[in-house]
Design brief:
three-stranded antiparallel beta sheet
C-alpha cells in the first residue's frame, strides 16, 4: 500500500516501555502502527495526521484468550500487533500529554513481568547444563580442525543465549521491584 511505511526496530522483552515510547513518537510524526512482523521487529505504519496514540505491549503466554481480548476492545483499545510467543500490542488515542494504560493495578503489571520471567527461565536455564555436560561438543572442541570450529560456534551461541536470557531476567526482575 502506497501510504504505508515499514521500519525495523530490534527490541528486547525488558525494553517494552522504551518500545512503546518509540511507537508513540512515530504517531506524533504521523506514522500510526498497523501491524508488526512475526518476530516483532518489522513495523508497518500507516501515514496520517500527527496525533497522540498510546501503545502498550502486553505479554500473554497463552496468546490472549477471547475474554481477555474482548476486555481490551470494550475499553477502547485496538489490537495492532500479535507476535507469536505471546506479545500483543494495543493502541488507543490519548489526550495530548497523557498516557493511556492497560494495567490499572500493580498486581496485573507484576503478573505480566512474572510471566515473562517464567518463559525466560524455561528457555534459557536449560542451555547451560546442555552445553556443560555435552561431551561430544567438548570432544570435538579438543580434537581441533573443523569439528572444533563447529563445536566452538555452538558453545558460543549457547553461552550468548544464556547470557542474554540471564541479563533479561535480571532487568525484568528489577522492573518488577520498581512497581
Amino acid at each position: 500500500m502506497k501510504d504505508d511505511v515499514w521500519k525495523c526496530k530490534l527490541w528486547w522483552a525488558w525494553q517494552d516501555r522504551e518500545h512503546e515510547e518509540w511507537l508513540t513518537a512515530q504517531s506524533r510524526r504521523g506514522l500510526h502502527l498497523r501491524s508488526v512482523s512475526m518476530l516483532g521487529m518489522l513495523h508497518r505504519f500507516e501515514v496520517g495526521a500527527p496525533g497522540e496514540m498510546s501503545y502498550r505491549w502486553d505479554f500473554q503466554s497463552d496468546g490472549g484468550k477471547r475474554d481477555y481480548r474482548q476486555l481490551f476492545d470494550d475499553a477502547g483499545w485496538k489490537l495492532v500487533g500479535d507476535v507469536p510467543g505471546g506479545w500483543l500490542c494495543w493502541s488507543k488515542p490519548a489526550p495530548a500529554g497523557q498516557r493511556a494504560e492497560i494495567f490499572t493495578d500493580r498486581a496485573s503489571l507484576r503478573n505480566k513481568y512474572r510471566s515473562l520471567l517464567s518463559v525466560l527461565a524455561i528457555t534459557t536455564l536449560p542451555l547451560m547444563p546442555l552445553i556443560l555436560v555435552n561431551r561430544g561438543l567438548w570432544s570435538d572442541l579438543a580434537a581441533g580442525g573443523r569439528p572444533a570450529i563447529a563445536a566452538a560456534g555452538i558453545i558460543a551461541m549457547g553461552l550468548g543465549c544464556f547470557a542474554i536470557g540471564a541479563y533479561g531476567s535480571l532487568r525484568i526482575w528489577r522492573r518488577m521491584q520498581e512497581i
